[in-house]
Amino acid sequence: MKPNRISSSLRLAALCLATLAAPAAWSLDAGAAAPEINLPGVKEAVNLASLKGKVVYVDFWASWCGPCKQSFPFMNDLQAKYRAKGLVVLGINLDAKREDADKFLNEVPAQFKLAFDARGESAKRFDVRGMPSSYLIGRDGKVVAAHKGFKEVDRKDLESRIALALGGN
Amino acid sequence: MSPAIAMEHFLITPSRSSRAVCALIAAAALGGCAFAPPQPWEKGNLAKPQMSMGRDPLDQAFTQHIYGSKEAASGGYGVGGGGCGCN
Amino acid sequence: MAWAEVAVAATDAKPCRGDKAGAIIAAALALPGVTAHAESAPERGVVALKYLNYKDSQPGLDRIAVNAPSIYVLAPISPRWAVDGSLVSDSVSGATPRYHTAISGATPRMTDKRLAGNVQVTRYFERSNVAIGLASSNENDYNSKAGSLNASFSSDDNNTTWNVGLGYASDKIGSTNDATLHETKQTSELLLGVTQDWTANDLIQLNFTLNSGRGYFSDPYKSVDNRPRERDQAIALARWNHYFAGAGGALRSAYRFYRDTFGIKAHTLGAEWVQSVGRFTITPSLRLYTQNAAKFYFDPIYDPDVGAPYPPGYFTNPPQYSSADQRLAAFGAVTVGLQIGVNIGADWLVDLKAERYEQRTGWRVIGTGSPGLDPFQATWLQVGVEKRF
After folding, report:
1. How do beta strands A55-61 and A87-93 pair?
2. What is the CATH number of the domain that holds C309?
3. Contacts of C152 in chain B (CB under 8 A)
4. Which fold has domain A29-166?
5. C233 to chain A, closest Cα gap in Å
6. What is the pLDDT of residues C247-262, one digit of tens each?
7. How far apart are CA C70 and CA C115, in angstroms?
8. Whole domain around residue B5: which residue ranges?
9. What is the ipTM for the molecules in this complex?
10. Are the beta carbons of C79 and A151 separated by less than 8 Å?
11. Residue B60 in domain
């Protein structure tokens, strides 16, 4: 028991220093193929591969995340505005308990596709670093851009990138 | 005693009290729970107001002042971090 | 000086801030505890009002009563800037012993008013923030001005946050009993701390504080009170919050070790259980405290010839420093408390907290308590209302 405690405290010290020293690199870079998503949705299963040909805006969210509340109206607007051009907004919920997600959705309705990943497997594959995190996936199934967090000032940037990915239809 | 020497004394002097302090801190930090920092999406419970380090500033101020006025020791508190990891 | 001290009542005949050299940063840092991530301003602003009613006593004498309304405002200006501040107005009245716990017909009664305020501006960066604060406290015989600088740095995964704080306070001290008293005191403070998400249900914080004070530390309203003109303090604080998902409650515990150049060592152990019950939050709390006596504190054994309040040999072999202030004696103390909060809608919070404090020399944990002092009791109530917007 004792050696474990000593080594775990050394690990903590090393980890603390490492996390501060590590550069903010993202292993899921633009141009990489988007990891697969195969999750239960509200009524039917959601599969990312089946959405090839569309531009998909994947957003990882949770009920306890403040900025997530602010991002929902934005995503509702996006979906309504660009649906005809082939945009699919997909919100992946990471709450451990489904009731928490449902309570949130009662107060902040989502007019876009939803999927539920209580174990966070898809978040791990997408290398999610903060909440919320969003990934823009092009029609070819490759990641175009990734964005961490959400603030009102981000709206313009995010929307222009989406418009670009949708092309000049 | 200069602050530097005070700090040194506190950390190095093998007095009963400083050894007890180190043991308590180690016990609190390692006692029972393995070190497993959460992924960003696992911070739901840490984000609850019950878990925040400095939630009620007026209460803290009143209380710290009362104790500081009635006892010899005072201070030591600071701002909390961690939390929900949003943004 | 320290906002924590300026914020509230002189909970003594004349504020003991003479002895209290600490907590500048504590005060400044205690304030914006709303959402404590390093990298962006809180999403919502807060306006909070809180009212304190405090009464203390010892057997045979009701001592100090305090009524203190206070207000706190936190205003996020943009995602990158936030301003917060507070104001408190204390009305203090009552009496305290001039030495040890001696009461007599001559124990003076007083009334006083204090106004204190502070403001802090925080700038948020990608993984860090910096805050500058100013505080001021004013009453008829004590004036304090303090400034602070705090910075927080978060790791990339946001699980580790480092905190650094610097504070400086400059006090002017007088006495309503002695118009010729014009003293000053300057204090500097440094805090280094780290907060770590230990698991998905554990939050740990470790803070180390160094405090250095020079100037007047004596209490001009106490007899035979002559303290050193310097006081250095070292404080270590460990805090642990653990969430029990099954119960829907959190256990918040803290241990603080304190030592200073007055020769005082103190241990503080506190715990509270924060239980959610629907829209209610019930929080019982317990705090245990123990300290030894200051090097220059003397027991209530008086000179056989001259009598109280002079210690034996006070005139024939004068001590360099002396104090009969019970707050510098060796004792233990216990606080029990209960807080009930109600969430009304999404934005309002009302809470009521009652605490009972008792200090006894017989309760000292390590070693023996100082003899000859009466127990000290205090009860305080806080009523608060808070709105988020």
Report:
1. parallel
2. 2.40.160.40
3. 79, 81
4. Glutaredoxin (3.40.30)
5. 27
6. 999 999 999 999 999 9
7. 10
8. 1-31
9. 0.88
10. yes
11. no
